[in-house]
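Table 4 source record.
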Amino acid sequence: METPLHTWADMLKDSAEAGGGDSFDALPVGRYDLKVNESEPKCSDKGNRYWKLTTEVTTGPYKGRLVWTNLVLTPTNPKALPFFFNKNAALGLDRKFFEGNPTDEQVAAAHRGAHFRGELILKEYNGSQTNEIKKYLPAENGAHSAAPSGPPAPPMTASAPEPPF
């Protein structure tokens, strides 16, 4: 076996420095400018389609930190559909985009590179604090979104439940 170019300790240190702190800690509650780095279409055990997103903070002291989320499509629950479409509208995927009947991969491709503003909250998962994007808002300061945008999506309330998966 060859000697690695970097030790695990070196890479952990580099990761913490690049992320503005310990990159394993949850970010403080607040609004962040985010960009979608990756979107991957998936299917849950219950048969619901979703897109697994990797987003990155683009401004401020936490620039470079990653936040993961899923955009769940639950066609059998009409009350959940507005959550899905409102979140996508904040990413620039408006009604006109979906009226074009895109494939799951085309939706994922349109997510990639999209800028938006996300309101992060803290949530406990397996005994650790993690972040959840509770609100998706259009990007501020003229940052571009992935697809042509239509009218802004109506605001979502923080107390609205996430669609079940």
